[in-house]
Records
---
Amino acid sequence: MLGKTDLLEAIASTNRGLLASNNDRQAIQSWAARLEDRTPHPQALAAKEQLNGIWRLLYTTSQELLGIDNIPLYKLGQIYQCVYLDEARIYNLAEVVGLPQLGGLVSVSAQFEAVSDRRVNVAFERGVFGLQSLLGYETPLSFIQKLRDQDKLPFWQGLDFRLNRDRQSGWLEVTYLDDDLRISRGNQGSLFVLKKVRG
C-alpha cells in the first residue's frame, strides 16, 4: 500500500526512534498521518481479530520507553505490547540487552476502559523487573501467560510490585489498524508504530 511502504522505509534505520533525526521524525509523522486518514478499521476496538495479540514496536517518540536505553551497561532490546480486548488488559514488555546471561526485562501491565471506538483510558497496575534468566523469560507470549497465572512472582525471580493506578495512567488511541500494522498515539503526544507478531 502506498504510504505504508514509505512509513516502514522511513523508520527502518531509526532503531525504534533511538537514532531518529529531526528530519526523520518529521517524515515519519507525515507518513503516519497519511496512513491514519485511510485506516481500514476506523472503529479499531471493534476489530478484535486485528487488534488482539502481540505487537512488536517498530518506532516510537516516547521518551519513557527510549530512556530505558540509558541504563548503564545495558541497551534497549525488542519491545512488545500484548492486547487482550476481552479482558480489557494490556501488557508491555521491554527486553534489555546486557552481558551474557544478564539480559534484563521490564514489564508493566494495565487495565483499560474504552472511551470511544478507538481510544482507551489506561491505568497501569503492576510492574515486573529482573534478569530474563531468573524470570524464566523465553518468549513474550509465555511470559505474559506466567503473569496472568501468578498474582505475584517469588522475590528471588525479580521485583514484582503494584503501581498506583491514579498516578500511572493515561490514554491510548489506535489511529491506524490493518492486519499487520498499527499506529497509536498517546496522551503525552507520543507516536507508536507496531507490527503484529505471528505465531
Note: Residues 42-196 form a domain with the Lipocalin fold (CATH 2.40.128.280).
---
Amino acid sequence: MASFLTKSEKEYLLTLARGAIKARLMGEQFAEKKPPSKILLEKRGVFVTLTENGELRGCIGYLEPIKTIVQAVRENAENAAFEDTRFMPIKEEELDKIKIEVSILSPLEELKVKDAQDLLKQLKPDVHGLVIRKGWAGATFLPQVWNELKTHDEFLSNLCLKAGLRPDEWKDTSTMKFYVYTVDEFSE
C-alpha cells in the first residue's frame, strides 16, 4: 500500500510512541505536541510493534477504527510495552534497544471464498494482513508476518494456532470468516 502519510507525520507518530513509553516508564506526565496535520485525527485501525535485537518484544493494536491515529499510536505503544501478556513489561535499560514500528490499517474487507483453493488464490503474500474468525475465536497477522511465514499454508496454519484453532481449520472455509487489509507501515 502506498503511504498516505508524509515523512513529518510519520516522524511525529514515532516520536509520540517513544515519548509515551518513556513517560510511563519514568512515571512522568507526557506532554503531547499538537499533530502536524488533521489526517492524524482520522480514526483508523493501528498496531504498534516493538522489537529488540530483531526479536518481537510486544505488539498490540486495534483492527477497527475506534480511535484517532494519534490516540491509537499512543495507547498501543504503551500497551505493547507494558500490557502484552506474552512478554514482561519493558524495563528502563531496554528503552534504547527497542525499535518501534507503526502500522496504519486500511479498512477490513471480507473475503468471500468458495473453498480453501479460492482462499489461497485471493490471499496475497506481503500485501494482505489477515483476520480469521470462527465463533468466538479470532486472530490476525499483519502483512509483515509474511516475512517469517512465507507459504500460504504456514501463514494460515500459524494464524489458526494463534486463534486457538487446529492448524488446518482454515481449510474448512464454510465455518470461518476471512478479512484482509493492507498497512502503511513505518519504523524508526
Note: Residues 7-105 form a domain with the Glycoprotein, Type 4 Pilin fold (CATH 3.30.700.20).
---
Amino acid sequence: MTIDFFKTAANLKKVKRQGWIDKLSLEHPESVADHSYSMAIMGMILSDIGNCDSEKILKMILLHDLAESEIGDYTPGQITSEEKRKLEDETFYKISENLPADIKSQYQKIWDEYQENKSYESKLVHQIDRLEMVLQATIYENDGHSKENLSSFIESAKQDITNPKLKELFRKILENN
C-alpha cells in the first residue's frame, strides 16, 4: 500500500546518522531525512546547472537511503560492503513491493542504477552524498566539534569526489569554513 511506503519514508526522520554518533558522540545528530533533504537541494541545483536529468537525480537522491528507514545507518566497518548491499537491496525491494507496478519498476530501476554506481547520474549522486557530508562536518566544526574528529569524514570525501565541479565545491566549503 502506498501509505506504508510514505510511513517508511517518514521513519527516516527518526534514524540518526550513525557516523556522527560514533565519531563525535553527538546525542542529537542530523537524521537520515535531514541528510537526504540537504542532498536533494544540492542535487537540484547541481543537476540544473549541469543540464542533467534533474528528475532522475532527485528521485535517486530521495531513494538512496530509504532502506535505512528499516535497517538503520550502517557505517563502514560495521558490516562488509557486500553484506550492506545485499541487506539494502532486499529491504528496498520489500519497501517498494506494494507500489503500483509501473512506479515500483521505475524506482527499482533507479535504485539498481544507484547501487551499481556506473552511470553519470549515479556517480554524481554518490559524490553529492559525500559533498553533503563535508558540508555537515563543517557545520559541526563551527558548532565547536573537534576538527581532528571530523578529519576522517573530510579525507574520505576528498578521495571519493572526482567530478571537477564537485571538487571545486569541496574546496570552497572547506575554505569558507
Note: The chain has ten helices and no strands.
---
Amino acid sequence: MARYQMFSDPVSSLLKKAGETIIMPAFREHASTRTIKKDGSVVTETDLKCQQFLQDKLLALHPDIAFLGEEMGQEEQSECLSHGGRFWCVDPLDGTSNFTIPLPHFASSLALIEDGRPVFACIHDPLLDETFTATSGGGAFLNGKPIHVSPHSLLASAVGFIDFKRLEQETAAMLATKKLFRSQRNLGTCALEWAWLAAGRAHFIIHGGEKIWDYSAGSLIAEEAGSVVTDFNGIHPFHINQLSSSIIATTHKKIHAQLLATLQNV
C-alpha cells in the first residue's frame, strides 16, 4: 500500500492542474474544436491537449512507466497492453460529448496498471473540484477522506447507472421494461459513474462494453470502497489483458448476484 501511496499527491495534482488550466478554460469559452473518430466517438482539441500534458508530465515524473491513453491509435494501445509490466492508463477527458454540448458533467481518469491489475487510481471532476483516489489494499478516498459504497442491498429499490446503447437490444429491452430496480441514470461519463458508485451515490452500474481507460481507475476506486465488480460472465474485467469489457458493479453482493443471473438468463 505504502509503495503505491507515493503516487497519490503528485499524480492527483497533475489531474487537477489539467482541469484548471486546460479543460475548464476551454469549457467556459466553448473554444474546443471537435471531430468524430472512426468508432463514432467525439474527440476535441481539449482531449488531445490534456492527454499530451499528462503524458509529458508523467514521463518526467516516472520515465520507466509506459503510457496508454484513449487518444492513441488502437495499434499503439494494444502494443502497450501486450507488453504488460507497468503503464499509466489515462482518459484525459471522459464525457467529451457532454463537454461539447456543453453539459457540465465530465472528468479526467488515470490508473497505474502493474502486472495486469490497477494498483493506483485517480478520477478528478474539475467542475465540483472532487478528486477520488484509491490504492490497492489502501482504501478509497474523496478529497482525502475515506469513502464507502452504500450498504443498500435490495435491487427492487436500487438506483443505478445503465448505458443502454452499448447493450444487446434484447438485454436493453428487458432492463427497460422488467422493473427490476427503482430507477436508472446514464451520466455520459463512465469515470464519474464509477466514482459516484464508490461514494455511495448509486447502487449499481451495468455497461455492455467499457474500454480499459473507462474502467481501470473507476473499478479500483469502487472495489476499494466495497463494490463487487465483474463482467457479464461473473469474471473480473482484469482477468486477462483486454481493451474492453462488459461491466456489472454493485454496492452489495446480493444486488450483484441478482443482476448477473438476470443478464445471463436473457
Note: Residues 155-264 form a domain with the D-Maltodextrin-Binding Protein; domain 2 fold (CATH 3.40.190.80).
